[in-house]
Amino acid sequence: MKFKAPGLVALILTAAVLGQTLFVRPTGAHTGNRVDQPSELERIPHFETLLDALRQELKIPAYSAAIVKDQKVIWAKGFGYADVENKIPATEHTAYHLASLTKTFASTILMQLVQEGKIKLDDPVSKYGITLESEGVIRVRHLFSHTSEGNPGEQYRYNGNRFAELDKVIERATGKSFAELLIANILDPLGMNETAPNVPRIVSTRSPGTANQPAEAEVKAAVMDIVGGFNSGNVDQIERRLAPQQNRFRGEGGFLSSFIDAPELRQAFQSGFKLKLQVQNLEAAVYGDSAITTFFVGTTITPANGPQRTEGPWRCSYFWNKQDGAWKLVHAHQSPLGGAMITEKHQQRFDTVVKMLAQPYALDRQFNITKISYPQSFSSSAGLISTVLDMAKYDIAIDQNKLLTKETQQLAFTPTVSTKGESLPYGLGWFTTNYKGTKLLWHYGYWTGNSSFILKVPEQNITFIIMANSDNLSRPTDLGSGNALSSPVGMAFLKTFIFPEKFGAQIPEISWNLPIAELKNQLNAAAAKPYADLYRTDLVTKVRVYQSVGRATDTTPLMKMYGELYSKPMPDDLLKLPVVAQIVQVLDNEDKTVAFSLASSQNVRIFAIGEGQPGEMFDYGWIENVDKGSRVWEMQEPKTTHAGGAGKNRKVDLVITLPAGNYKLRYKSDDSHAFDHWNSMPPDINFWGIAVYKQ
Q1: What would the pLDDT profile of 468-519 be if each residue is shown by its tens digit?
Q2: Alpha-carbon separation of residue 11 from 201, 396, 520 (angstroms)
Q3: Alpha-helical runs (H) found in 138-212
């Protein structure tokens, strides 16, 4: 889409009751094959209506959005309230926590280091002091592309915690933190003055009139006494400083539990385990027989058997009581800093940006909008704060190759290919989707109280950016699986600006509140259209949205209709195979067993669909060898693929060899989401259970 008279623009700023709209208006009309299509700016009012309707449906207090076209911001606007209680409207200058959108910045920094030869994508992560459970050698590209679990490179599995390990790669390769490089290499050069790493300064605990230097010195000495015990492996020294009831308050809300298990720690030290703590910025405030100490701590860990690693720094707050004349540790609170450096320059940036930050909200158990606290951590995986206008600067710099060469940037945008030759939905820090020949580059962010989304369509030189002060922009959808079309706001953008050109016409909207019979007729009538699959995606998304906002009862007829319209029978190639054993159409709370025997060693094909989430299965099957009294195969979630519908629908389709013997096929389900009793979208295949076929 080109404008006739590029370069000549008018800047129009209009204020509205609930926000501001920023336009960069081109002076020419569109040319070529699209003369009968409205321009981007002519479509904006309709798009704004769609966005605000979605905001209200999703129960999101506020979001801000922008569109970049041909490397110019053509529109930006805030919707709703950045602070509901104080009636502060959201604008294009409202800041939000980007959550996982931070990964795109980590992508740029890491690819710069690749470009400079300081990092090689095929480096083993052990080179950088990283130790992770794996079935093989984990390399930098595996963390980068979410393919590090199981057999590295074999399968995609989105894992923000593992991605955050890239902090260590950056620090070992450069001697600098991700935050330092982010500011020096991206934020400062691009003038992104509305963006900052979320690493707040440690606030002094000292209040006016409470200064007591001798007592403060005593409490500081108590901190260093415990630290000395850890560093020397002297558990007795540590125990002397612990109150009888001492607890740890970990992370941003986490849990209360025993702070130090002395017997376990003593055993670890005796086995060769070593720990070195480095304390910085130690402060103390004393209030009678109580005190608070605050500090940063970095940790070097040397396991009894394994490579040395570093962790932290952590922001720590320790709470003390004076008991029998000695200061005793009662509680400890700690939060990760993700290796960020606290500098005055960063502090000035953070202090400026935090004043623009929207108040985060979440839905409570009654689905009411509730004010929550700000997240307080930062890493290469999440934690950057920004505005849509600053994100637009970043997007423009990407397209102008100001940060990476064209070739290096393209490498980051290229889908990862698995060791099995399958194209995966993630590149290096970016999701990649090809929808009927249209390439989509995108990423989402999701953190309690915050969410974000960026969508680039290179063939039309257009980018959509949106951020919200609620997680409902991303949480209800299955974006982590790699489907950009499951984003309601993303779909609104595509239907408004991209698909009319692709399909030669505006895609008719369907009202999902229609009676089911009428709705089914409309979907059947559209079945032959080239965009019919989008309605199917819309239906899945609508069910998830309804469930996320307390409208679960509205989903039952929609899920039933989905099964009637879109569920497929078993694949033909399976139906042609002889059945060895099967357990089908399993209901809630069932535990079924079928016996079978093999007279000789046999290749068998296992087909199973069940329910699971990362790391565990709820409805699943397995095979037991009766003669040996052991399981020979089990449906494990990391080895499954998506079965369509809800993300928790998991599928296995594989061939294994079983020796001659007696076996039991078994399948167990929990109390929800089973055949014909779905609480989320059913799988694409009309099947729930397990079957074994003679291959």
Answers
A1: 999 999 988 879 889 999 999 999 999 999 999 999 888 998 888 899 999 9
A2: 38, 18, 46
A3: 140-144, 160-163, 166-174, 178-182
DSSP state of 157: -
Whole-number Å distance between alpha carbons of 218 and 225: 10
The whole-model pTM stands at: 0.73
Bridge-based pairing of strands 591-598 and 579-583 is unpaired
Interval 190-230: pLDDT, tens:
999 999 998 755 444 444 445 677 888 999 999 999 999 99
Concatenated DSSP letters for 673-687? SBTTB-SSPPPSBS-
- 391-422 per-residue burial string, b: 16 or more CB within 10 A, e: under 16: bbbbbbbbbeeebbeeebbebbbebbebeeee
Residue-averaged pLDDT of the chain: 86
- Which of 328, 530, 300, 372 is CA-nearest to residue 436? 530
Burial (CB count <10 Å: 0-12, 13-18, 19+), residue 32: exposed
Q: What is the DSSP string of 191-202?
A: T-TT-EES-PPP
Q: Which two tokens stand for residue 344?
A: 């005055």
Strands 326-336 and 242-250: parallel
Distance, CA of 97 to CA of 56 (rounded, Å): 20
Contact 608, 649 (CB under 8 A): no
Domains of the chain are 1-197+340-504 (3.40.710.10), 213-336 (3.10.450.50), 508-566 (no CATH), 572-694 (2.60.120)
| Residue pair 299/277 in contact by the 8 Å Cβ criterion | yes
